[in-house]
């Protein structure tokens, strides 16, 4: 983890202000969802929420589930099966 040398105080509502320059460099805009994690060392990790990554992981889990439970041999076969069922995959039906 890279130190920035920036220190901020927590206000009475538990908020911490992220400096404007840091938000600009990291592409964080007002209203952006953020994820909060803690590690074993007791450090707080703040990360811009990536919904696309979560959706991709869920799709991958679904493909694995279909392969395991339906006897479908591989990912391409699962995608063909979904296409035949009329499910939109990758922007195509």
TrEMBL record:
It holds the Pfam family MazE_antitoxin. Keywords: DNA-binding. It comes from the Bacteria. Residues 5-51 form the SpoVT-AbrB domain. The keyword ATP-binding does not apply. InterPro entries: B_subtilis_Trans_State_Reg (IPR052731), SpoVT-AbrB_dom (IPR007159), SpoVT-AbrB_sf (IPR037914). PROSITE patterns: SPOVT_ABRB. GO terms for molecular function: DNA binding. The keyword DNA-binding applies. Gene3D superfamilies: 2.10.260.10. This is AbrB/MazE/SpoVT family DNA-binding domain-containing protein.
